[in-house]
Amino acid sequence: MAIEHHDYDVLVLGSGGSGLRAAVAAAEAGAKTGLVCKSLLGKAHTVMAEGGLAASLGNVDPRDNWETHFQDTMFGGKYLNNWRMAELHAKEAPDRARELEHWGAVFDRTPDRKMSQRAFGGHTYKRLVHIGDRTGLEMIRTMQDKAVHSDIDIFMETTITKLIKDGDRVTGCFGFRRASGEQISFSSKALVVATGGSGRIYKITSNSQDCTGDGYALAYEAGAELVDMEFIQFHPTGMVYPPGVAGLLVTEAVRGEGGILRNAEGERFMERYDPKRMELSTRDVVARSIYTEVKEGRGTPHGGAYLDVSHLDSDYVRRKLPSMYDQFLELAGVDITKEPMQVGPTCHYFMGGVKVDPDTGETRVPGLYATGEASGGMNGANRLGGNSLGDLLVFGRRAGIGAAADANKISSAPLPAEELAAAQGEVDTYLNGPGTENPFQMHKDLQKIMGDGAGIFRDKEGLTEAISLLESLESRVDNLKSPSARLEYNPGWQLCREVKNMLTVSLMIARGALMREESRGGHSRLDFTAYSDYWAENNIVVHSNGGYDMALTPTPVFKRDELSELVEARKESEKAS
Amino acid sequence: MSETMAAGGTRTLQIWRGDLTSGELVDYTLETEPGMVVLDAVLEIQRSQAPDLAVRWNCKAAKCGSCSAEVNGKPRLMCKTRLDHLPADEPITVEPMRAFPIIQDLVTDVSWNYEVNKKIIPFTPREDLPEGDYLIDQADTDRMSEFRKCIECFMCQDVCHILRDQRMHNKYYGPRFMVRLASLDMHPLDGIDRIDQIADDAGIGLCNITKCCTEVCPEGIHITDNAIIPLKERVVDARHDPILKIFKRNNTRPGKKKPEASA
């Protein structure tokens, strides 16, 4: 049966910030560009980014510069970052912020009418360009409008289930349209994975339902390497009540604007964990602190910490944090200008991702690129707030340019018929095969395994158990079947492949977490609570040995001599303080 | 007025099931938890009772505007509507947005909105801007920001009489895009004279200011008062100002130029 087919120079998977920026860059470089997104355009997870975009413009504090931003990023990442990525990010974020404004983005202003910048955890100076607490929406909408006027073909509500290779090279992909269930294939000279993270492997997450690690799994299956998958950012402040909204993000801007954390006994407990930075310590520290307070019996009635802005002027709170005000009033019945919020850690961001060339986003698989949260390296062991929005602009653009340059050099390659047939067979099996496993149930099982064994705190026993349970899902995954055989907008069908992807991602995380016998950033081991000198110098790189058999290799951190002075200077100043 | 429930309990949802050809309300009963929103209930029904129930959702945080539906007859974001804020003594009806073609169950085809958006020329800086940083007042930012809060849930389009009842999709862009045009027209550095598009293609004159759109906006945007009425005034100023007419002056506003080709 003939299926819908399209040919592109550059095909981008994912329409969040990094995907949109990559597509715009590729189109500007002259590539015939397609953009495939699992949801409607403009709905990607980037819309939920609240606090801001870190860029050392120096509009509010003229002392700021790229060197300090670089140092902050490295310190926040516990020095496991790819140095080159942290450098490029710090150097280029200001231009990317200005460029967005030139495309029509509207940000809050300073008194002298420039882009304003706010304080955020781990940033030395006031650095985050923002608009209220909906900066991500502003960026998405701006780039969305830029993209639709950039001669880019957009395929909405289209799910990609397989990258197709011709020999060593990725030459396209296969999937289906959600609304009709019709199959679709794409040829690409260069394909950019910009599919974001995989927060849905946990029950308590700030991530939207699209975040199922599709890009990690598809790239892994295509032979790419992934890096730092054990590092997961649990955002310190998610809603804990009511149950239906547990995990929903409470922006760090609440603390940036002066919010105070207290335990049930009224203590400002951050004094015990990071007296210097207090509420604006890095996210890993604040998340662990709240978790510890609750575990030791000083939690709020709903099992979190109090986060209070009621001492601030109420008009100011409503102007600077409007969506937080609405969110708590509507969903929890709490007026944050009068009473404290209750908050606790929620899975928020994946530091790890597909290993890429810092300058171009190229993976080790020819024809395959990755960017944004789908790629790894920039953020090391822990991401600073505000660095993801900078990351997706800087590296989205670079991946788009890199992919277009690659595409200009080669001619289109065919999609091998047997590869295509295998991809078709897989989705058909989920719909009409003999399977008996319910994807909704398996998703729930997987979330429980990850929450129990590979959550914010980990140990050998729990991780070993989690890995064993995940391995027991491996055989069940091939037996997944949608409860309904309907083609049109069938949620169970969609979920089958997503569960498979999430299982791959979960195995990478749990195995990496077991290997890394130390605590660092977004990886905390109860049985190895200190930093290890060995692991301070090594990232864990994972690739497939076939199926779920993974090779995990400690690999030295990517450094650059010319940046050593900056890194050493920061390490010294941290020791001194 | 019915009492609202303080906590969970058993609730019945009547969910519209069907496609473009036919459909009906189907009853589902479930145990609810305190603080549950309509989307929680719909997803729980999908997980445990009706795995083929089609529903579009994404962020579940009232930020993406995907899960728009008509709840008890009124357009709402399912993720932002608490069950215990709805009358406890009657079933909750959940239906798709009626102004758009049905794809399946609660999912509608909203692609027309994306076609309209393509016709709107994006922000284009004025040609007379000095080099260097853009300088913009916070007051201008606040004015535009209200419009840019829009999460494109399309519920304003759903209730707009011009679209829903009169089906004049070829003559009127709808409130969502009046908001978008307002955000562009009120950008102090935008260099496009958008009056012709606002008046002719977008059809602003068709709006008869019933404010239904404003009432359903989950972001609280004052669509009618702050976007549509000021745009209507701008059209009148540009086209019917008697002083300009007397002097036969070009009515293109300072710093703005007419679009090169009509969109």
Low-confidence stretches of chain A: none
How does the overall form of chain B come out from the CA principal axes? elongated
How many β-strand stretches of chain B? Answer: 7
Instruction: Determine and state the CATH class of one domain in chain A.
Output: Mainly Alpha
Strand content of chain A: 15-25%
Number of domains of chain B: 2
Based on DSSP secondary structure assignment, what is the total number of beta strands of chain A? Answer: 21
The mean pLDDT of chain A is 96
SSE string of chain B, helix = H, strand = E? EEHEEEEEHHHHHHHHH
Q: Given this structure, which CATH class of the largest domain in chain B is correct?
A: Mainly Alpha
Helical content class of chain A: 25-40%
Computed over alpha carbons, the radius of gyration of chain B is: 22 Å
On the 0-100 scale, what is the average pLDDT of chain B?
92
Strand order of the largest sheet of chain B: 2-1-5-3-4
The named CATH superfamily of one domain in chain A: Fumarate reductase/succinate dehydrogenase flavoprotein-like, C-terminal domain
Your description of this structure?
Chain A is built from 16 helices and 21 strands. Chain A has 577 residues and is of the alpha/beta class. In chain A, the strands form five sheets. In chain A, strands 1, 2, 6, 7, 8, 9 and 16 form a seven-stranded mixed β-sheet that branches. A five-stranded mixed β-sheet of chain A has the order 17-15-10-20-21, covered by helices on one side. In chain A, strands 11-14-13-12 form a four-stranded antiparallel β-sheet, with helices on one face. Chain B is elongated and about 70 Å long. In chain B, the strands form two sheets. Chain B has a five-stranded mixed β-sheet. In chain B, strands 6-7 form a two-stranded antiparallel ribbon. Chain B is of the alpha+beta class and 263 residues long. Chain B is built from ten helices and seven strands. Mean pLDDT of chain B is 92; it is low at 1-5. The chains are: A alpha/beta (577), B alpha+beta (263).
